[in-house]
Amino acid sequence: MVVSPVVLQSATPTQIAGTVAGLALFLSLTAHLAARNVLGDVPIRRAFVVGPVPAVIAVVFVAFELPVFVTIPVALAADGTVLKFVYGRDLRLTAFVLLIHVVVSILLAVVLFGTALLILSAPG
After folding, report:
1. pLDDT tens digit string along 67-99?
2. What residue ranges are annotated as transmembrane (predicted)?
3. For residue 91, is it within any domain?
């Protein structure tokens, strides 16, 4: 089974908004897990400020077909800036939260995508 990528230029505004919202929710969840892991008990409301920033950057950069080696550093810099602003920690601790956020996001995405592929490839 070959999975073809969805081209955003042919997507409706509702589909784009849904993609941004889903990605923002996913990144908010992983940001909260990372912040809770590093900083201890933190309110989940703060994570809902962090998630939309890299989500919007990712969708906009894909829509304009900008290269990944530009998109990832910009998204990471914006994510780190928002983390620093929202949680008010020093630069070193913010960098650690950012690192954990990246790791948790990648691990959770791999698990969810792998599970989806297993379910879709099931016989019958």
Report:
1. 999 999 999 999 999 999 999 999 999 999 999
2. 16-35, 47-76, 96-120
3. yes
Tell me the C-alpha to C-alpha distance, in Å, between residue 93 and each of 15, 22, 29, 30. Answer: 36, 27, 19, 17
Assigned domain for 34 exists: yes
Q: Is 40 exposed, middle or buried (0-12, 13-18, 19+ CB in 10 A)?
A: exposed
Amino acid at position 18, single letter? G
Q: Rounded to two decimals, what is the model's pTM?
A: 0.85
CA nearest neighbour of 42 among 100, 122, 111, 120:
100
Residue 2 lies in a domain: no
Q: Which of 70, 74, 29 is nearest to 48 (CA)?
A: 29
Structure tokens at 116: 């989806």
d(CA 106, CA 76): 13
Amino acid at 68: V
What's the pLDDT band for 9 if we cut at 50, 70, 90? Answer: low
Paired tokens of 113: 């995508």
Phi-psi label, residue 3: left if phi above 0, alpha if psi -120 to 50, beta otherwise:
beta
